[in-house]
Amino acid sequence: MADSAQAQKLVYLVTGGCGFLGEHVVRMLLQQEPRLRELRIFDLHLGPWLEELKTGPVQVTAIQGDVTQAHEVAAAVAGAHVVIHTAGLVDVFGRASPETIHEVNVQGTKNVIEACVQTGTQFLVYTSSMEVVGPNIKGHPFYRGNEDTPYEAVHRHPYPSSKARAEQLVLEANGRKVRGGLPLVTCALRPTGIYGEGHQIMRDIYYQGLRLGGRLFRAIPASVEHGRVYVGNVAWMHVLVARELQQRPALMGGQVYFCYDKSPYKSYEDFNMEFLGPCGLRLVGTRPLLPYWLLMLLAALNALLQWLLRPLLLYAPLLNPYTLAMANTTFTVSTNKAQRHFGYEPLFSWEESRTRTIRWMQAMDSSAQ
Ligand SMILES: NC(=O)C1=CN([C@@H]2O[C@H](COP(=O)(O)OP(=O)(O)OC[C@H]3O[C@@H](n4cnc5c(N)ncnc54)[C@H](O)[C@@H]3O)[C@@H](O)[C@H]2O)C=CC1
Ligand SMILES: C[C@@H](CO)CCC[C@@H](C)[C@H]1CC[C@H]2[C@@H]3[C@H](O)CC4=CC(=O)CC[C@]4(C)[C@H]3CC[C@]12C
Fold first, then answer.
1. Which three-class secondary structure state does DSSP give residue 41?
2. Do 108 and 88 contact (CB within 8 A), yes or no?
3. What was the pLDDT predicted at 7?
4. What Gene Ontology cellular-component terms does the record carry (predicted)?
């Protein structure tokens, strides 16, 4: 009876709702959350696609705002039952300054937590990242690990440092009293490398391949495994965790969950070829064409060029010492914690995830011609 009493009563807020993951979370909520009355989408940049959502039965409210501005966040959060905080500055290419990354990812998350406390919102789901664990600066492999696998998490790069700090703040906030006296219930989801429709890095790599005459050159040994997860499954996990957090606060509050599905364990490049191959690209070489030390040198050169050119232009190629270390260190997850705690099963099989991603890439290709 509790469920029917709550039918179409809930107000959800998705921060970063116009980003790659955020859009999938928004669409998934509209499809899979029958208790939704209002869906608020908060983002720095609002997408035109939001208009088409406004004709459905759920009230869709688009809010253009900045998570670093506490008053804007508080106004958006007021009256929401659940906040899904996906907004973040995802930058491992040196496009933004470390201060800006910290401001958005850490201060932005503090603002979301404080807004929940001050306005009385009880449930907060945070989109964290596998990067809060690793790979660490020492390049230790994390092979089929789970949430309890011991691993020395040491970060120097601003992105993982900021995600780790923000995650810690969210978990520490679990149990704080919100306005009205009820406890705040929080948890964090840690996706591995997300792929699927709308993935900007995949798009960049695809166009890079086209510029190179339909070829990509292997830089990473095929034996280095990199964890990947389909965006639809990550979105589904967010919807499910938000729902179940309300039913099982004692079990799930303060917990972290890796996001996982049935995507195969492969190297970053071999995995991308699952989609780029059917779009006509070829990965040249069964082994890296350049020795690692030379790649490292090129990566360092890119970093130097970025620094030298900064007063004139933004030079931010895919290859830099950090991205090379990321791609070249095994980091894979094998866990069933989400299944045990809240009944998660991937909504999309590997075949479906692959097909959907290929279809998106092919559509992108034909619209570019
Ligand atoms: N892409 C990936 O492989 C992974 C992403 N994540 C996390 O998932 C979340 C979403 O990432 P993506 O969708 O890939 O990135 P994205 O860049 O596509 O989306 C982030 C969204 O946040 C918004 N945003 C940025 N700064 C903001 C601000 N100051 N105020 C309000 N909105 C702001 C952006 O406009 C954008 O719409 C991030 O928190 C990221 O750290 C975690 C693991 C892997
Ligand atoms: C050395 C190049 C030769 O082809 C390949 C460079 C690939 C890199 C751009 C990617 C390798 C690993 C990626 C990261 C990883 O999937 C984990 C991530 C988690 C996040 O929270 C955000 C995105 C990312 C940092 C992701 C970014 C791109 C890579 C570094």
1. strand
2. yes
3. 66
4. endoplasmic reticulum membrane
Q: So what's the pLDDT on residue 50?
A: 96
Residue nearest to atom 11 of ligand 2 (CA): 327
Q: Retrieve residue 155's tokens.
A: 């970060």
Q: Could you tell me if 311 and 205 are in contact, meaning their C-beta atoms sit under 8 angstroms apart?
A: no
Task: Answer whether 105 contacts ligand 1 (Cβ < 6 A).
Answer: no
Cβ 136 under 6 angstroms from ligand 2: no
What's the complex ipTM? 0.98
Which is the closest atom of ligand 1 to the Cα of 105?
39
Cα-to-centroid distance, 265 and ligand 1 (Å): 24
Question: How many structural domains comprise the chain?
Answer: 1
Domain residues for the domain of 129 are 10-199+228-265+332-357
User: Domain for residue 59, yes or no?
Assistant: yes
In a domain, 26, yes or no: yes
> Catalytic residue positions?
159
* Closest ligand 2 atom to Cα of 326: 12
Sorting pLDDT into bands at 50, 70 and 90, what band is 4?
very low
Q: Tell me the pTM.
A: 0.96
Residues 6 or more apart in contact with residue 226 via CB below 8 angstroms: 192, 193, 266, 267, 268, 271, 327, 330, 331, 332
What pLDDT is attached to residue 1?
A: 37
pLDDT tens for residues 191-218? Answer: 999 999 999 999 999 999 999 999 999 9
C-alpha to C-alpha distance for 10 and 149, rounded to whole angstroms? 36
Q: Is residue 271 part of a domain?
A: no
Query: Cα(127)–Cα(138) distance, rounded to whole angstroms?
Result: 25
Q: Is 196 in the pocket of ligand 1 (CB under 6 A)?
A: no
Q: What is the CATH number of the domain that holds 252?
A: 3.40.50.720
- For the segment 142-195, what is each residue's pLDDT rounded down to a tens digit? 999 999 999 998 888 999 999 999 999 999 999 999 999 999 999 999 999 999
Q: Is 90 in the pocket of ligand 2 (CB under 6 A)?
A: yes
Contact 11, 47 (CB under 8 A): no
In a domain, 93, yes or no: yes
